[in-house]
Amino acid sequence: MNLIPSSWSTPTFSCEDLQSSEIGVVQELYMASAPVALWDGKEQDPHYIELSYQEGILPEGGVKEKFRIQSIRLTTTEEIVGFISVYHGYPREDSLYLAMMCISGDFQNQGYGQEVMKHFLLEIGLLGYSEARVNVSLRNWAGLRFWTKSGFNRISGIFGDKEFAEGKFADIELINRW
């Protein structure tokens, strides 16, 4: 199976495998990224990026070798402004699962996330993948708008609580298939 390149780029950004020296900066971006507790009822993990780097975010039965986390840097300043983490070959061999994508709040709503996703999808298409999947909280309205605008317009399932109420949460798995 082909893994995304350890380094790839867009006109504005360079994306490279996360280095251990970058864990702290990327963890700060993750912690500042969004009100996750409002979406899924869980607090953000203060060790999420370190765990991702060391062990990976894996599906049941998954292996670390199929996981990759990368920093997203401005090419002009080398500043880390986000990250993307993916698992290759889940739930099907020709699927790529986006565990998370984050762009710093200072760079949101300017089309940068769309730019990264457009080039990312081109990269994985060249590797032979026929779809990408992402899980989004139904309460994450900005995320739902972003992912559907990025072509994730097929639903493979809705998971979680069955009714809407305070303290109840659900997610939707979206697919971009080409």
Automatic annotation (TrEMBL):
SUPFAM superfamilies: Acyl-CoA N-acyltransferases (Nat) (SSF55729). Signal peptide: none annotated. Residues 24-171 form the N-acetyltransferase domain. InterPro entries: Acyl_CoA_acyltransferase (IPR016181), GNAT_dom (IPR000182). Pfam families: Acetyltransf_1. This is N-acetyltransferase domain-containing protein. It comes from Paenibacillus glycanilyticus.
